[in-house]
């Protein structure tokens, strides 16, 4: 499949005046985009055939139902963590309840550090909305786990509170999942002006693939998991990660340790672009450094994946440099270049230790459509 980066989406989701957004980022840890590069960068460490990052939405591989027909569609619990976004939450819920999926769906809206809004509750045949407060640790990880444990659907899906599902998403994923434990699909990044598809084209993603570099297109709003595997197998979302940074990537790593992840290349979820990332690299440097060091300690497999190790180590080096801890930054710069001498984050971190403001570097990268 050929992907043409930088072309605006055409088809039903395209804006009549489509043009690249300026300085917008997707929710979570997405990098900023700009007119020079209206899409997020392709992970450089992965085989070119594995990803279709940046394809126009109209060129995303179509969804194809794989595997045998499902006679008994399992009940699905859809967990939506939310905080102070009631205006967009209803649109998200409507996109889930409007699935062409024949089985029962229960949306669990988990209000994190904000009072639950009972007006979202619904009890209709085959379609329910349950509203609850986060009863575990504050943050998205605790909120997701609260929702997982509240309901009892055979399958569990995640969705962020500003994202939208296309009507075919669940039917196609459940068919493809079969007896598997975890499935993902492609996404479409969008705002009022433009839409771009991002996907992994491989039908399965392994731990080795994930260790070689993060795959941002495997977005948590695409996750579909078997409850038994999530609760009693590879485990719930980690509430130990400092600040919750990278919790979605860490969950993928654990799930891939458990077994290969099923993937559909077609777009099933629309991820809304926002004006600011949840994690600002400079302001959250302490959290980023702590979380990534935590991840490297708990995943010794990175020792056999020099590119993936260098990517994380380079981020740590930059965070340490931004914090003014020059000796620690230099130590992590050394670890980075020993694994991959051409890792750009190492040299950006070195520039910060030499006195270049970290914020200036991050701002320039964002204007170029890139991030640390």
TrEMBL record:
<dbReference type="InterPro" id="IPR029044">
    <property type="entry name" value="Nucleotide-diphossugar_trans"/>
</dbReference>
<feature type="domain" description="Glycosyltransferase 2-like">
    <location>
        <begin position="77"/>
        <end position="230"/>
    </location>
</feature>
<feature type="region of interest" description="Disordered">
    <location>
        <begin position="1"/>
        <end position="38"/>
    </location>
</feature>
<dbReference type="InterPro" id="IPR050834">
    <property type="entry name" value="Glycosyltransf_2"/>
</dbReference>
<dbReference type="Pfam" id="PF00535">
    <property type="entry name" value="Glycos_transf_2"/>
</dbReference>
<dbReference type="InterPro" id="IPR001173">
    <property type="entry name" value="Glyco_trans_2-like"/>
</dbReference>
<protein>
    <recommendedName>
        <fullName>Glycosyltransferase 2-like domain-containing protein</fullName>
    </recommendedName>
</protein>
